[in-house]
Amino acid sequence: MYLSVDRLKKFTFRPALMLFVLFSTGAIADPSQRWQLNMSPGVTELGQKIYDLHMAVTIICCVIALFVFIPLTIIIVKHRKSTGKQAATWHENLFFELSWTIIPFFILGFMAYPSTMTLIEAYDTSDSDIDILVTGYQWKWKYEYLGKDGKNFSFMSNLSTPRDVIYGDPTERENYLLEVDEPLLIPVNQKTRFLVTAADVIHAWWVPDLAVKKDATPGYINEAYTIPTKTGTYRGQCAELCGKDHGFMPIVVKVVEQAEFDAWVEEKSKAVDLSPKTFDELMALGKDLYATNCAACHGVNGEGIAGAFPGLKGSPIAVGDMTGHLDIVVNGKPGTAMAAYGSQLDALKLAAIITYERNAWGNNAGDSVQATDVLNYMNGGAK
Questions:
Q1: How much is the pLDDT for 225?
Q2: In what order do the strands lie in the sheet with 184-187?
Q3: What is the pLDDT of residue 22?
């Protein structure tokens, strides 16, 4: 039984009875429904089992509550002192002592078996069809496909909501703060294993519809899996308070048919484009990448944030020696918020960002860097 919010408003139940109806019937389980009170079964068999277990335990708890509070209420009302009732003087009763010990024991035993079986299944990540290394960064996700056929590739997934919209009216956008530039793709009816970790602080990778929620802890790898049974787009968020932009770290997973997934993997698996690019091509690509990866700290106009993040407009880094610029972008700066982008972006993207930073906002360094230059530097050479 599923009830919309509009239909529920027509009910005149008292709040306690309404909550009982909602939880015991599974009402408002549609994940797209605003202000839903119940969890969603999602689109996986494991998610459905967890949901069924949740509902069974909830109903048991509601029944126990009725058996406890209804007699208790009757006793309190019927045998209250104001009516002249006198409290009994007997102490202890073997029947009741045994009853409220043995009955809960069997109830807990009845609940323990399905709970244990579901828990064992939830932790069984063996025999996966696809393995994906998920790495959390402030504030984005990196996905690395560990292909069994040797076709390994990775990409970053960033919030794609425009900065000028973030602080606007959230009702104007259907998926406010839940859109990314590159979603994660997985095939339907296949077991996908997630190896979840982090590169800076603790994050948490959470997609309710896929029945996955795992902490991403630096230095550790936690495992989870999903077997989606329906195609579609499913959204989640970082579920750990990981910093000031924590709310700007969404997750989007697209479940597609196997043929579409294979074609996507084939395209993604192609080698990084190392062919020389024109100055205009690098600037155009670098402008988009800068807006996604750098503007939050260094500002859209390269002026930074006073007292927090340095500006790049007229900066010695941006107009000075190219090697120094390569070093700080590729390796980051220890002890500061400047991350090492050498492990996050490919050589072409790094080249485009550096070229843009050196020639935007009036810097006009007049030079550019190619993907091969970045690779040479990362391999121990220099520009």
A1: 96
A2: 184-187, 250-256, 232-238, 203-207, 212-216
A3: 44
Asked whether the predicted pLDDT for residue 120 surpasses 80, the reply is yes
Same-domain pairing of 334 and 223: no
Exposure string of 229-252, with b = 16+ CB inside 10 Å and e = fewer, is eeeeebbbbbbbebbeebebbbbb
Helix 322-331 vs helix 371-378: crossing angle, to nearest 10: 70
pLDDT at site 151? 62
* Domain extent for 237: 130-268
- Decide: residue 224, CB within 10 A, 0-12 exposed, 13-18 middle, 19+ buried: buried
**Encoded tokens for 374:** 């970045």
Q: Are residues 258 and 283 in the same domain?
A: no
Residues 296 and 358 in one domain: yes
% the chain with pLDDT above 90: 41
Per-residue pLDDT reduced to its tens digit, 209-263: 999 999 999 999 999 999 999 999 999 999 999 888 888 999 999 999 999 999 9
**For residues 209 and 40, is the Cβ–Cβ distance under 8 A?**
yes
Q: What is the DSSP letter of 379?
A: T
Integer-rounded Cα radius of gyration of the chain: 28
* Element containing residue 222 per DSSP (H, E): strand 222-226
Tell me the C-alpha distance between 143 and 68, whole Å: 51
Do 233 and 146 share a structural domain? yes
Asked whether residue 9 carries a pLDDT value surpassing 50, the answer given is: no
Tokens of 20: 């009982």
Mean pLDDT computed over every residue of the chain? 84
CATH number for position 137: 2.60.40.420
| Helices 347-359 & 279-293 angle (0-180, nearest 10) | 100
Query: Half-sphere exposure of 122 toward its Cβ, with a 13 Å CA cutoff?
Result: 19
164 shares a domain with 262: yes
For residues 242 and 105, what is the distance between their CA atoms, to the nearest angstrom?
Answer: 41
Residue 8, SS3?
helix
